[in-house]
Specification:
By secondary structure, this protein is an alpha+beta fold. It has four domains: about 160 residues, no CATH class; about 180 residues; about 90 residues, Roll (Pdz3 Domain), CATH 2.30.42; about 190 residues, 2-enoyl-CoA Hydratase, Chain A, domain 1 (Alpha-Beta Complex). The chain has 21 helices and 32 strands. The strands form seven sheets. Strands 1, 5, 6, 9, 10, 25, 26 and 31 form an eight-stranded antiparallel β-sheet that branches. Strands 2-3-4-7-8-11 form a six-stranded mixed β-sheet, with helices on both faces. Strands 22-23-24-27-28-32 form a six-stranded mixed β-sheet, sandwiched between helices. The chain is elongated. The protein starts with a helix and ends with a helix. The N terminus is likely disordered.
Length: about 750
């Protein structure tokens, strides 16, 4: 633990202006782009792509960048490692809108070919003319025997506009044609990187259907020819018409592998943007029917539109009907995509990673919480936390400083489920603990119990003054940066618990102040964390006042029915939930559900698709959790639950169930304010971070996180009561029950 003091003091001096440093800002923007690709790009779901490596390669270049262009080039080099032409860095285009007389939106070649200059108008940003021309196109298409649609583009940032306009047109076919679906990533919460979770979190690839290409009437153009270049996107309408044999493609270059992509952008400084593939069409490969030059493209398209299928100029039956596209998996066989579970590399051998991998750790931590922590709005400015800690991860000089940076960054989440283990973390936090429970009581740190056997020379009610000569208050304050929780009370008591820890097989000199005010120091051997357990005691018993008492820390599911049998004639049951239960809420709740409640809690988790990531909208998957039911007799007496900050997660969920079932009264102090099935991430060095994955609330929607179950009757232990062997919270609950009207 003394080594930790040095680490903390070394790292405590941080500049308050780091967010203003260009290097830090660029690294933060790098994290944003890398994170966006990490979750939005569909290839990462089904291809063998190591997305860590491009980041590791980019970090030195980003740190060395002297201006916006060098930074953009570094981002571009990282994206280029995907080998996806649709994902790239581009300079934001400046449009020079042409005069309308220079280029008409539509024109006729003779009386049989309608030419629509959609691409050139979109390319120049003349959206008013495109929008207004849409009505004219629909009108003229109905009269046209043949249609040529020019989709050529020069500016890469206008690719998304083409499908928007073209796919809204009607009348290009005389029968309904299935359009190809779009494939995008899908996340419903964050699947744990290590171990399981009760949250049901899942991810995969989503096939988003596109509406069919529909007729506007009984007739349609005999022939449609699309003119494209390397910048032209493959519109679903265009692909559907081509696959059906109703259209041909004249190209001035090969169709790019990024033509099937929908992209979203991340803004970079200096007028640059990072464009990222977020969806792609699922269809057989599209190939040009004719390849020619830019100058000859329109005239060749007009010829192709007018020719007869048997003519050589049509390519020997170029318009012969192709196999009908049905949108089925078989039709998409050339481009299969089976999603695979994402497994982040643990880099287990890196107890002290090189700088790029340390920043990878910071970026993983930031991006996972940024997208998947359900209470992110409670953190505050999470982006500012990233900027604060980038220099900390850069400057970490050894494994301890690296682990300390992770602990302190994660502590900003302020979530009672946020625990960190693995790698060098154990060296800092300890792997063994003193076998005593110490809690904050009336502003002092008091021994309130023990785990197993109470050490000699220690009594319940003693005040811990120092450990190994360090004042306990100092020790607790130091650990506050490293150990987090959802409320101040829970964080203090958790820090007290961690303050008792140390190395394996170690002992500690503990200074105690006893009841008469004198102090003494005793040496106490630590026990492994795995040996922590409650002392043996009955899980339930009948109190003298005709009240049942059940210790939910000890009560097993197999004992629930016997407990209700024993308490059948009592006027009340006190459920002691000042600790962690053994999964009994699902058996107890139906036995006390006198309200006939159907649901016990509300859940929500972040849920999004890759093609919606940049929309700025927030959303999630939410549901009401049903209360379990059974046909066993219901207990109709009063129920009370004893709570304090040791009631966390499943403990609090038990309270939600009981509250919904019969309005159970809470007595004591607020619970820990932490609920929602735990999930996890892995950082380099095999460091595991657990965090809450679900937003869980009272059934009426009231917030639980950072609030906890709120007692109707508030009562706290006193040092005097503890020393006298009293359980003042239990005593107050008995008095409350006895004061109830009969």
């Amino acid at each position: 633990m003394r080594r930790l003091i040095v680490v903390i003091l070394t790292l405590a001096v941080a500049s308050s202006s780091v967010a203003a440093e260009p290097r830090v800002e660029r690294l933060a923007k790098l994290a944003e782009v890398w994170s966006f690709v990490r979750f939005a790009h569909p290839w990462l779901m089904y291809k063998e792509i190591d997305w860590d490596a491009p980041l590791v390669h980019a970090i030195p270049n980003v740190r060395a960048a002297k201006n916006d262009e060098e930074f953009a080039n570094a981002i571009g080099a990282m994206l280029a490692e995907l080998h996806d032409p649709a994902t790239r860095v581009a300079k934001t285009a400046t449009h020079h809108q042409p005069e309308k007389s220079q280029l008409p939106f539509t024109r006729w070649e003779g009386d049989d070919v309608l030419v629509v200059n959609l691409g050139p108008f979109v390319d120049r940003g003349d959206y008013d003319a495109v929008y207004q021309g849409g009505a004219a196109v629909s009108r003229d298409v109905a009269k046209a025997k043949n249609v040529v649609i020019d989709l050529r583009l020069q500016a890469p940032d206008e690719e998304e506009a083409i499908p928007y306009y073209l796919d809204s047109w009607r009348g290009l076919t005389d029968k309904s044609l299935p359009a190809p679906a779009a494939r995008t990533t899908y996340y419903s919460g964050w699947k744990p990187a290590d171990g399981g979770s009760s949250g049901g979190y899942n991810d995969g690839l989503l096939l988003r259907t596109h509406r069919n290409v529909e007729p506007a009437g009984p007739t349609a153009p005999r022939r449609i020819v699309f003119v494209i270049n390397a910048r032209s996107p493959l519109s679903p309408t265009m692909v559907a018409l081509w696959l059906s044999g109703r259209a041909a493609i004249v190209a001035t270059s090969a169709i790019g592998t990024g033509a099937d992509a929908s992209t979203s952008e991340v803004t970079l400084p200096g007028g640059w943007t990072a464009r990222v593939r977020v969806a792609e069409l699922v269809a057989p490969p599209v190939t040009p029917d004719v390849t020619t030059t830019d100058d000859a493209a329109i005239s060749r398209a007009v010829e192709l539109a007018r020719c007869k299928e048997e003519d050589d100029q049509c390519g020997g039956g170029r318009f012969a009907r192709r196999a009908a596209f049905t949108g089925t998996a078989e039709a998409a066989a050339p481009t299969p995509a089976v999603p695979r579970s994402r497994v982040d590399d643990r880099y287990a051998a890196m107890s002290y990673p090189d700088l790029p991998y340390r920043l990878l750790a910071a970026f993983r931590l930031w991006s996972t919480i940024d997208r998947f922590y359900p209470y992110k709005e409670l953190i505050g400015d999470w982006n500012a936390v990233l900027r604060e800690f980038i220099p900390r991860f850069e400057d970490a000089k050894n494994a301890d400083e690296y682990a300390t940076a992770i602990l302190e960054m994660a502590a900003h989440i302020e979530d009672g489920h946020t625990t960190i283990s693995g790698g060098p973390v154990a060296n800092l936090l300890g792997v063994a603990t003193l076998p005593i429970e110490v809690r904050a009581v009336e502003g002092q740190y008091v021994v309130t119990g023990n785990f197993g056997k109470m050490p000699a020379d220690v009594s319940v009610g003693d005040v811990v003054v120092s450990i190994d000569g360090e004042p306990l208050a100092t020790r607790v304050a130091r650990l506050r940066k490293l150990v987090t929780a959802s409320t101040d009370t829970a964080r203090l008591d958790r820090n007290l618990s961690y303050s008792l820890r140390g190395a394996k097989d170690s002992s500690a000199a503990v200074e105690l102040r006893v009841a008469d005010g004198t102090t003494r120091t005793t040496t106490i051997a630590r026990i492994p964390l795995t040996a922590i357990d409650y002392p043996a005691a009955a899980s339930y018993r009948l109190l003298d006042s005709n009240v049942g008492y059940a210790d939910l820390r000890r009560l097993k599911v197999s004992e629930v029915d016997a407990m209700f049998d024993a308490f059948a004639k009592t006027k009340a049951i006190i459920f002691d939930m000042r600790g962690y239960p053994k999964g009994t809420a699902w058996s107890i709740a139906p036995r006390i559900n006198t309200r006939g409640a159907k649901f016990g809690a509300r859940f929500q988790r972040p849920q999004f698709t890759g093609d919606a990531m940049s929309s700025g909208l927030t959303g999630g998957y939410w549901f009401q959790q049903p209360l379990p039911v059974n046909d066993k007799p219901k207990y109709t007496g009063k129920t009370v639950m004893l709570i304090d900050d040791r009631a966390i997660s499943q403990s609090e969920h038990s309270g939600l169930f009981f509250e919904a079932a019969n309005g159970t009264t809470f007595i004591g102090t607020n619970s820990a304010g932490t609920n929602g099935d735990v999930t996890s991430m892995i950082l380099p060095g095999a460091i595991r971070i657990n965090f809450t994955g679900h937003d869980v609330r009272h059934i009426d929607g009231a917030q639980l996180q950072r609030v906890g179950l709120v007692p109707a009757v508030r009562v706290e232990p006193t040092i005097k009561g503890i020393r006298e062997g009293k359980d003042e919270v239990l005593d107050r609950a008995i008095r409350y029950i006895n004061e109830l009207p009969r």
